[in-house]
Description:
By secondary structure, the chain is of the alpha/beta class.
Amino acid sequence: MWFDDEPPAGENLPILPGHVSPGRLERVLRAGGFAVTAEIAPPDSANPIEVYERAAMFDGHVDAINATDGSGANCHMSSISVCSLLTRLGYAMTMQISCRDRNRIAIQGDVLGASAMGVANILCLTGDGVESGDHPEAKPVFDLDSITTLEIIRGMRDDCRFLSGRRITSPPQVFLGAAATPFAQPLESRPLRLAKKVAAGAQFVQTQYCFDIGAFATYMEQVRGLGLHEAVFILAGVGPLASARSAEWIRSHVPGVHIPDSIIARLKGAADQPAEGVEICKDLIHQIREIEGVHGIHIMAYRHEHLIGEIVQSTGVLGGRTPWSPARAAGIRAVE
Length: 336
């Protein structure tokens, strides 16, 4: 069954031959649009209102929303549950799958369930180790990694079969994604790692934060040299920094993130550091858009999601496109 996550509001982006999903994100990217995605942090709560309130901050600003899956090995509402709540309202969701917590049986079952709910995008992650989270005594699974998960889901979709070989009567119609860390050591292996994920089935990639534009440009040059920019849609990770102190902490503690001294100095010299962090994010977006082979941005603004609308609208990154929102759709239906 095909689900349409875009009502009559805004432009009409058709589902064309060759699309593997009905989702807005794939339609935007294949139409040549510069896509904008963001992450929703699942609540430490069983109250769905908290999910709705968080999602509302993205209304009209993003093409798809990632529901994180135990990010940092910390316990929150599950990704598939957040997707279930928000697809009912019509949001375009990307379900993240962490291999840390599930074996191949559970992962394949979740993929079928997510597609049945209308989730059109799946991002495959190996996942952080449990020792970094709030349940270090938990038993990790890691039956699969991100690459084998991509291969398995691609087989479910394209060959209509589980990994066991058993036939699937109605395959999941999903656009497959992966993460990339352009700044992790050794740097020369990063494009090759991306190539492996593309070969496994990745169709879009969301990167770790890109604060070092020079290093990211070098990475993209290597990516283009391998022809990967024509094989996968690349969305560069960006986000506002709250202060010089938080930037220094991220640089020291978050693997794969490099923040140049110049950015930290700019924050330290600002009278209003949070506002300067937003301006830095805007400047980075403008520079990223000029790099050949980049197809969009992925905004990570944990606990600062309310800033995403300002960042997106002031940079003009949507190019006049108006992403759907439940409130706008409800207004149109009321008029009709």
